[in-house]
Design goal:
elongated, two-stranded antiparallel ribbon
Length: 102
């Protein structure tokens, strides 16, 4: 079971049948693909200026009171690799902080 605040909480579960290695089939459950929201569809509560020593989990904790919600910031800033948002060459850049939709 997924936590209600997980990025995958609203993703449907699907099933498929695959060979079991003994001539039969077994059912496998999996989550369907997650498509991040379009940033333009997100409501913004704030912007965060990237500073030396920032960590995405701490930024998420500051705005959402939950460090595990860092994925909301990566979605809002169109980023697949969260560490890129806080890289040295991004000091002074502004990160969009979205409203945490639940």
């Amino acid at each position: 079971m997924l936590e209600p605040t997980s990025r995958y909480a609203t993703i449907p579960v699907a099933t498929t049948r695959i060979p079991d290695g003994a001539g039969g089939l077994r059912e496998v459950r999996y989550l369907r693909r997650r498509f991040p929201p379009q940033p333009s569809s997100l409501r913004v509560i704030s912007e965060h200026t990237v500073a030396q020593g920032d960590r995405l989990d701490l930024v998420a904790a500051a705005y959402f009171d939950d460090p595990c919600q860092f994925w909301r910031i990566t979605d809002a800033n169109i980023c697949l690799h969260p560490d890129e948002l806080l890289a040295e060459d991004r000091l002074g850049a502004r990160l969009v902080i979205p409203v945490p939709e639940v």
